[in-house]
Design a protein that fits this description.
The complex is a heterodimer of chains A (332) and B (309). Chain A is an alpha/beta fold and 332 residues long. Chain A has a domain of 73 residues. Helix content of chain A is 34%, strand content 29%. Chain A starts with 6 loop residues before the first helix and ends with a helix. Chain B folds into two domains: 205 residues; 88 residues, no CATH class. Chain B has twelve helices and four strands. In chain B, strands 1, 2, 3 and 4 form a four-stranded antiparallel sheet that branches. The chains are: A alpha/beta (332), B alpha+beta (309). Chains A and B meet through helix 3 of A and helix 1 and helix 7 of B.
C-alpha cells in the first residue's frame, strides 16, 4: 500500500455501498421510470479482486457509474476508501476502464496516455517514467506511436487498461476488460490482475466472462433486476450443499442398492467429464444430510471392501451457479 | 493545474483534428500573405491614388491626383469605379472620424502625407480603417460560422458515452470539466482571431504606416460574440445531446440577431466604434448580450452537473 494513504482511509473498505438506489426517469409528457438499483448494499475489502456478475440490464454498470460519480444515485450511500463517492477527491486513488470506451482516434497510444494521465493529475515526470513501462506491460510497446484509430479491439482494450493503471490506483474498476481480447491477451490481463492484487490494489471487476471471474476473483456478487441476490466467496457460493464427489474402487451392485434414495449413485461419463472412471477407481456422488450421515456412508463402503481414494465437497461451475441463481430470482 | 492543462490540451487537439480549424488558419495565413506580398498602394501627396492586388489595379480613381489635403469626393460618395475598399472607406468616413491618435511611429509616408488624399480619394488612415473593417467583418462571419460548425460536435463528443465516463472518472469536478472545455474552445478562437487580426494589423501598419491599435479590439468583440453563441451550443447539446439541433438553433439565433442588428448592431456597431476610435454608444446591447451569455453558461453548467451519463 502506498505510504501517502491517510490512516483513516487505509482502514476503510475500498468500496462501501449502503442501500444504494437509482431510478432513471425519462419522457417529457409521459413520465417513465426504471429502477436500476433497488437498495444495494455491499463492501469490498482493500486488496481483493471482487467480481460483479449479473445478466444484461441487472444494474451492474449503473452501480459502477454511481461509485464513480458518473451517475447520481437517487438514495443511499456510496463511499470509496471512506470518502463519499460524489466527492471528486474520492476518485484520486481510482483507475477506471469503461466498457466501450472511446479515446480520440487521432492520438497515438503514448500521447493519449500522457493526456489522460494529466487529466488524472499525474505529474509530467511520473507520466514520462510510467507510460513506457505500462505500454510494455500491456504488450503495446511496439505500437506506442501508432494512432489509436488504427488499433484492433484487443489493442484498444489493452490501451484502456494502461490508461486505468497510469495513476497507480489503489482501486481499479474494470468493466469487461477482456472484451475483444484474444486468449493470449486475456491470459496476460488475468496475470496482470493477480499481480496487482499481490501489490495491494483492489480490483472491482465487472464481467460477463464467468470463467474469468472464477479464475481471478476471491469474492463476488450477483446483481439481478437491480437487487443484490448473492454475495460471498466463490468457493462458498459454488459449493453444492450436502453433496460430495467420491472416487473409490467399484462398489459392488448389491452394496450400491443397499443405499436408500440418492445417497450413493455412480457418476455417468459425460462429454464434459469423461473421467467417470480412471484405472481401478470410479466416481460416485454422495448425498448426505449431515456429517454423521456422511461418515455412516463411508463406514458402510469400507466395511463392504471398497477402498476410498478421495472425497470432496461437490462444486458447481460458476456458470451453473449463476444460471441457477438468476433463474431462481426471475421465478420469484 | 495538470488537470486543467490536460483538459485544455485535449480540447485544442480535438479542435485541431477538425480540419475546419486548420482550414481557418490556412485561410488566415493566405489573407495576410496576400496583404504582405501582393497588395501595393501608390501614394500621391500623402493620399492613395492606386491600389494593386497581384499587380492588377483593383481600385483607382479616374480623377487626377489632388494636390490638396482637403476632403476628397470619394469620402462623401463612393466613386463609380472603386472597389469595396473605397465603399467601406466612404462608409467609414461617413460614420466616424479618424482618430488623431491613430498614427503611430512610421517612416513612410510622413505624418503630413498621411492626412492627404490621393487620386483614389482616400487618406492612409481612411484606407487602413476601411481595410481593417473589411477584414474584421469578413473574419467575423467566417470565424463565427465555421468556428461554431467545427466546435459544436466537440461538446457532443465530450458528453458521449464512453468518453464522458473516462473524463468524469478523473478526480475533477464537473464544473471544472465544463469550464475547462469551454475555456479551451474560447482560447482556440482567441488564438485564431489573434493570428488573423494581429498579422493583418501588423502588415497594414507597416505597409501604410498607420498604427491603428484599436483594430485589435475586434479580437475581443469576436471572441465575446463567439462565446455567447457557443453558450447556445453548449446548453442545447447538454440538454438534447444533438449537436445538429444545437447548431441549427444557434444559426437561427445568428439569423435573428442579424435582423435585430438593423436596430441595434452589436458586433458591427461596437466593433466599428472601437475601430474608429468613437465612443461606444451601445453598452446596453453589450451588457444584455453578456448577461444572456452568462445565463446560457449557467444553465448549461447546471444541466451538465445534474445529468446522468
Amino acid at each position: 500500500m502506498p505510504d501517502d494513504v491517510p490512516a483513516a482511509a487505509a482502514d476503510a473498505p475500498a468500496v462501501a455501498v449502503s442501500n444504494l438506489r437509482k431510478t432513471y426517469r425519462s419522457g417529457l409528457l409521459e413520465k417513465r421510470t426504471v429502477e436500476a438499483l433497488k437498495g444495494v448494499s455491499l463492501e469490498v475489502a482493500p486488496g481483493e479482486i471482487f467480481g460483479l456478475l449479473g445478466p444484461n440490464g441487472a444494474g451492474k454498470t449503473t452501480l459502477v457509474k454511481s461509485l464513480l460519480g458518473i451517475v447520481h444515485p437517487s438514495g443511499g450511500e456510496a463511499r470509496l476508501f471512506g470518502t463519499a463517492a460524489a466527492d471528486p477527491d474520492a476518485r484520486e486513488p481510482v483507475g477506471y476502464l469503461p466498457e466501450n470506451h472511446r479515446f480520440p482516434g487521432f492520438f497515438t497510444a503514448r500521447r493519449m496516455l500522457d493526456t489522460y494521465g494529466a487529466l488524472g493529475g499525474v505529474p509530467p515526470a511520473a507520466r514520462k517514467e510510467r507510460i513506457p513501462e505500462l505500454l510494455d506491460k500491456v504488450n503495446l510497446a511496439d505500437a506506442a506511436d501508432a494512432k489509436i484509430e488504427t488499433f484492433s479491439k484487443g489493442m484498444l482494450q489493452r490501451t484502456g487498461l494502461a490508461q486505468a493503471l497510469l495513476s497507480r490506483p489503489r482501486l481499479l474498476f474494470l468493466d469487461e476488460p477482456t472484451d475483444g481480447v484474444d486468449p493470449v491477451g486475456r491470459r496476460r490481463i488475468r496475470d496482470l490482475l493477480v499481480e496487482l492484487r499481490d501489490e495491494g490494489t483492489t480490483v472491482f471487476l465487472n464481467s460477463h466472462l464467468l470463467s474469468e471471474v472464477e479464475q481471478v476473483c476471491s469474492r463476488m456478487a450477483i446483481l439481478n433486476g437491480g437487487e443484490l441476490v448473492r454475495t460471498g466467496s466463490i468457493d462458498d457460493l459454488t459449493q453444492e450443499e450436502h453433496t460430495y464427489d467420491l472416487r473409490a474402487t467399484p462398489v459392488p451392485p448389491d452394496l450400491l442398492d443397499a443405499f436408500p434414495g440418492e445417497a450413493l449413485s455412480p457418476v455417468e461419463a459425460t462429454r464434459s467429464n469423461g473421467e467417470a472412471s480412471s484405472g481401478e477407481t470410479k466416481r460416485y456422488r454422495v448425498r448426505a444430510d449431515s456429517r454423521a450421515h456422511l461418515n455412516d456412508v463411508i463406514d458402510r463402503l469400507r466395511s463392504g471392501g471398497v477402498e476410498l481414494e478421495s472425497i470432496t465437497p461437490k462444486r458447481q461451475t460458476l456458470e451453473d451457479y449463476f444460471i441457477d441463481v438468476v433463474s431462481e430470482t426471475v421465478e420469484d | 493545474m495538470h488537470k486543467l492543462r490536460g483538459l485544455l490540451y485535449l480540447t485544442f487537439r480535438e479542435l485541431w483534428a477538425k480540419k475546419i480549424v486548420v482550414g481557418l488558419f490556412v485561410v488566415s495565413t493566405l489573407v495576410w500573405v496576400v496583404l504582405m506580398l501582393f497588395m501595393n498602394v501608390e501614394e500621391v501627396e500623402g493620399g492613395i491614388s492606386m491600389l494593386r492586388l497581384f499587380g492588377s489595379d483593383v481600385a483607382a480613381s479616374g480623377a487626377p491626383a489632388s494636390s490638396t489635403a482637403g476632403p476628397a469626393p470619394g469620402a462623401d460618395a463612393a466613386p463609380a469605379d472603386t472597389s469595396v475598399f473605397a465603399d467601406t472607406a466612404a462608409a467609414a468616413t461617413d460614420t466616424a472620424t479618424v482618430d488623431p491618435e491613430m498614427s503611430g511611429p512610421r517612416s513612410r509616408p510622413t505624418q503630413q502625407q498621411s492626412s492627404g488624399r490621393g487620386a483614389l480619394g482616400l487618406s492612409f488612415e481612411q484606407f487602413t480603417v476601411a481595410a481593417q473593417t473589411v477584414v474584421s467583418q469578413a473574419a467575423y462571419w467566417i470565424v463565427i460560422l465555421l468556428g461554431l460548425f467545427s466546435a459544436a460536435p466537440l461538446f457532443a463528443r465530450m458528453v458521449e458515452s464512453g468518453h464522458v465516463d473516462l473524463l468524469l472518472s478523473k478526480p475533477m469536478s464537473r464544473a471544472k470539466l465544463f469550464s475547462g472545455h469551454v475555456l479551451g474552445v474560447l482560447l482556440m478562437v482567441l488564438t485564431l482571431a489573434t493570428y488573423l487580426f494581429g498579422a493583418v494589423w501588423l502588415i497594414l501598419s507597416i505597409k501604410l504606416g498607420v498604427w491603428n491599435a484599436k483594430f485589435l479590439f475586434s479580437i475581443l468583440v469576436l471572441v465575446g460574440m463567439f462565446a455567447v453563441l457557443y453558450g447556445v451550443v453548449a446548453l442545447l447539446t447538454v440538454w438534447t445531446e444533438s449537436p445538429a439541433l444545437a447548431l441549427i438553433v444557434t444559426y437561427g439565433v445568428i439569423f435573428v440577431s442579424i435582423i435585430l442588428a438593423f436596430r441595434s448592431p452589436i458586433y458591427g456597431g461596437v466593433a466599428a466604434q472601437l475601430l474608429h476610435g468613437d465612443p461606444v454608444t451601445r453598452w446596453n446591447a453589450v451588457a444584455s448580450t453578456a448577461a444572456v451569455g452568462a445565463l446560457l453558461y449557467l444553465s448549461a453548467g447546471f444541466l451538465f452537473s445534474r445529468r446522468d451519463f
